[in-house]
Model the fold of this input.
Amino acid sequence: MAQPFVHLELNTPDLAKAKDFYGQLCGWTFEDFPMGPPAGTYSIFKPSEGPGGGIFSMPGAPTAWLPYIGVENLKASTDKAASLGAQVIMRQQEVPGMGWFSILVDPTGASIALWEAAKKS
Done:
């Protein structure tokens, strides 16, 4: 796949319950990182195969999984998505030391994120 899914995120109102469920169902273990308010903790999981992701609680956001597609040029890909009818919800946010993301709603109403990883030196 030219642009594979590279990361998955779950926003949930009950972080502990979600971690317990997915830990038992999938055998995932989690590493917690403090994010500060309003989200609190970001729990990263890394399965033995496929993309990893994170689980967190963001009050006011819907309970849902958000898949991230890897791209080479975030600005160009975000602009292209907008020209194709996507609504840009969040444009080019940095995750320090990791990369940048945009969040979109496609023309059918599905949420998707684009991810440009930071270049490794």
